[in-house]
Amino acid sequence: MSFGDPNNPYGQQPPPAPYGAPQQPAPYGYPQQAAPGYGYPQQPVPGHGLPQQPGMPVGPGAYASWGSRFGAFLIDFLVAGLVPALAFIVAIFLEQSLQGCLGDSACQAEREKVRVPIIIALLVIAVLWAVIANIVILVKEGKGASPGKKAMKIRLIREENGQPLGFGGALLRRICHGLDSAPCSIGYLWPAWDAKGQTFADKVMRTVVVSTE
């Protein structure tokens, strides 16, 4: 009875199975065949460990939505414009109060002494408030977030390096908003469908508004 080659303790090796045929388990005591591809570099799974395709970011740093930008605009508008608007309304009301003295010069003169100084004071307050409030808003926006943007949790930054604009850049961007006003204020609506959520002023200044959370 032959046990095969004496130099081979496992005896005669079984012939390899044809390609594509199911693998048969090797008899006990024979070395196991390595699984196909085992030990070779694996092909990377698409999308895993590979650079992702550029697209809209999510979470912190995502481009701000049109709704959040509009909300920030409304808040800033109220901060800068509410007090002047109320002052003008009161001034108009005082101006109309003279109608009760029509034909009575003495009554008109008496009311003028009280009305005129109040109206002048209201107009001065309205102008000063509007100027100071807009300066404060620009200073804050130059640092990244105006009061409205801070409330809406968004931030204005430079597109190329993510840094704030500074007061001068914020002022120049405010001037460039004139492009957004014509025609038909389409530039203010542009972020609603723009890939980066930019107005025309943003494109000129190379700025973006992003979410902070």
How would you characterize the overall build of this protein?
By secondary structure, the protein is mainly alpha-helical. It has seven helices and two strands; from the N terminus they run αααβααααβ. The protein has helices at residues 66-96, 105-142, 147-151, 166-176, 178-181, 186-189, 200-205, and strands at 154-158, 207-211. Strands 1-2 form a two-stranded antiparallel sheet. It is elongated. The N and C termini lie far apart (81 Å). Residues 34-41 and 44-56 have low confidence and may be disordered.
Set out the fold topology:
Layout: H1 66-96, H2 105-142, H3 147-151, E1 154-158, H4 166-176, H5 178-181, H6 186-189, H7 200-205, E2 207-211
Antiparallel strand pairs: 1-2
How many helix segments? 7
Q: Mind summarizing the main beta sheet? A: 2 strands, antiparallel
Poorly predicted ranges? 34-41, 44-56
Order of strands in the sheet with most strands: 1-2
Round the Cα radius of gyration to an integer and report it. Answer: 38 Å
- Quaternary assembly: single chain
- Order of SSEs: HHHEHHHHE
Total strand count, please? 2
Distance between the termini: 81 Å
Calculate the mean pLDDT score and round it: 78
Helix and strand composition category: mainly alpha
Strand content: under 5%
Helix content: 40-55%
Q: So what's the overall shape?
A: elongated
